[in-house]
Write a structure and sequence with these properties.
By secondary structure, the chain is an all-alpha fold. It has eleven helices and two strands, in the order ααααααββααααα. The chain folds into four domains: 53 residues, no CATH class; 91 residues, Cytochrome Bc1 Complex, Chain D, domain 2, CATH 1.10.760.10; 29 residues, no CATH class; 76 residues, Cytochrome c-like domain (Cytochrome Bc1 Complex, Chain D, domain 2, Orthogonal Bundle). Helix 3 crosses helix 6. The chain is elongated, with a radius of gyration of 34 Å.
Length: 294
């Protein structure tokens, strides 16, 4: 054991009377210190060189995993058409694509084209479908899913779409929606006029006005058409958050109505004006504006 001499160094005059003993360090402390000196190089070599746990190794491992999940080109993952891939792709389609292409894949309210007939705008081969999904068609309002879905998900989605395509079907375009119209009395007398037809005895021409089912609300329109991109809680997914204080194009009711109507093609948002019509757009815009205000 270290011998304590209790010899005072005599620093008291320079340290407000605080004295310091000149005793050696305890043997147990010196032993631990020696062990750490011996252990340090052993641990460093084992952890970084042998076990491969250095930051560089971890980075390389994460980059390799990312390359598998999000390959730079889809040739890195061989396209294989299996029942498992088709089943997985159905789930991906239901979660992300139904709003625009419809549950039956014949085209939906979002304006997406029919996916099961023989008419393919960008090609029907698996390679063409993968490219379209990955890169999107911004001019038509389809976002680039390559940054949002993994390579495996895109492969599975392609398998599902290809499995449903029927080359013998020429066109399965969805039927035009039935619009109920109401006509208001015409100022100045005479018979009311619908859709701008001529009536010389009238002072005002009344256009057809869409009458919505009372059960249709802004919330129901949002749920049916907008949740795929903006999520059910409106916190954003593919599309931006709609309930925070950050608005890209403005958060007032007039601006919200305009953006819904004309869309933002460069961001992948389609123009809902010709799809929903003014009445529904007014309801959903009011709903979004109210949620933002809360």
């Amino acid at each position: 054991m270290a011998k304590e001499t209790n010899e005072i160094l005599g620093h008291g005059a320079d340290a407000d009377g605080i004295e310091e003993y000149d005793n050696p360090l305890p043997d147990w402390w010196l032993a631990l210190f020696a062990m750490t000196i011996i252990w340090a190089p052993i641990y460093g070599i084992s952890y970084h060189a042998i076990a491969g746990n250095s930051q560089v190794d971890q980075y390389n491992q994460e980059m390799a995993a990312a390359a598998v999940q999000w390959p730079e080109n889809d040739d890195a993952i061989a396209f294989v058409m299996t029942d498992e891939m088709v089943a997985e792709g159905e789930g991906v389609f239901t979660q992300n694509c139904v709003v625009c292409h419809g549950a039956e894949m014949t085209g939906g309210a979002g304006g997406g084209p029919n996916l099961i007939d023989a008419e393919w705008i960008h090609g029907s081969s698996p390679e063409s479908v993968i490219s379209t999904i990955k890169n999107g068609v911004l001019a038509k309002g389809m976002p680039a899913w390559g940054t949002m879905l993994s390579g495996e998900n895109i492969q599975a989605l392609t398998a599902y779409i290809v499995s449903k395509r029927d080359p013998n079907v020429v066109d399965l375009a969805p039927a035009e929606p039935v619009v109920v119209v109401a006509v208001e009395p015409v100022v100045g007398g005479g018979e009311p006029v619908v859709d701008g037809t001529e009536n010389a005895g009238n002072d005002v021409v009344v256009a057809a006005v869409e009458v919505l089912d009372p059960s249709i609300t802004g919330e129901s329109i949002f749920a049916a058409n907008c949740t795929a991109c903006h999520m059910a809680d409106m916190t954003g997914g593919v599309g931006p958050n709609l309930i925070d204080d950050e608005w890209i194009h403005g958060g007032d009711l007039e601006t919200i109505t305009r953006i819904i109507t004309v869309g933002v093609a460069e961001k992948g948002m389609i123009a809902w004006g010709p799809i929903l019509g003014p009445a529904k757009i007014e309801l959903v815009a009011q709903y979004v504006h109210e949620q933002t205000a809360e």
